[in-house]
Design goal:
Layout: E1 5-13, E2 19-26
Antiparallel strand pairs: 1-2
């Protein structure tokens, strides 16, 4: 598993015309990018960037 990485979104405007700034965290798993198919998993139940492994939310 690769280290946690971050992307800053500084000027997102939602449907309610509010402008928001926030940080997204992500990890990449498996083969290097652009050498295999890519699957993106987006989950907001825990706010945790882990989608597999021993530290996933929900008591796993």
């Amino acid at each position: 598993m690769k280290e946690l990485q971050y992307v800053s979104v500084l000027d997102y405007t939602n449907e309610g015309k509010e402008t928001l700034a926030y940080n997204l965290s992500y990890r990449t798993f498996g083969e290097p990018l652009h050498t295999a198919p890519i699957v993106m998993v987006i989950h907001a139940l825990t706010g945790n960037s882990n989608v597999c492994g021993p530290k996933v939310g929900g008591g796993i």
